[in-house]
Amino acid sequence: MTVNQEQTSTMRSPAIVFAMTGAAGLHGGIAVVNLNIIIALVAIARAHNVLLTVLAYHEKDDDRPASLPDGVEYRAFRSNRYAMAMDLWRRSSDKPLFVFDHVNVARALLPLALLGHSRTAIFAHGWENWRTVKWTDSWSLRSAERVLANSEFTRKKIKARFPNARVAACPLGLHPGFHLNDTPPGPASEPLSLPDCNGVIRQLGQRVLLLAARMDPTERQKGHLEVLAVLPRVLAQHPGVQLVFTGSGGDHENLVS
Q: Are 144 and 165 within 8 A, CB to CB?
């Protein structure tokens, strides 16, 4: 039975509702992770004969991920919080498992989750789940059937803040379409070269510090400024070290100036 055939049966339960900020229509690490989550949920739906629905808060209909089979319902809400909340409450009567990509999205179902009338699982990607977590969101984490932390470090931090939370580490992986070599690659045939902050192409040496993260002026927790601050001391002990920032974002000019 295909996922398309499964979705035509509206009388079947259980079901999974994946409520996310967005995937194909957004930038950033969580959006990329959501593409992987969707592929995994499609496989789970197919293997266990489960109805799958995907809801996207910040996206529009044209942003439907290509990995979603035609029979999987996809609804986009164009950042309309009220419309998405009403949709979640409507679906709650069917008792699906709600999977949220961010604790903020889970806020709409908090009353039902607290009363045990709604089953929820929440992905936790950063310190907004323990350091700067809002009071309402803390209860979403504590009432979830499972909080899926993106690392063992994040799991420990959430458990330290909320000992009763049911947290499991779910380390991030590569996209299923990523090609893996059967054996480790040999030495590169040509030296790797990249443009520097002035646009000059430079060859990479033997000592390189790599930071792969979005450069966003509204979200400077990725470590770019901290690495730049300690770079002179690193160079004093290890001359010739090269620093490489890879990632997009509007903070690029500020960081390289």
A: yes
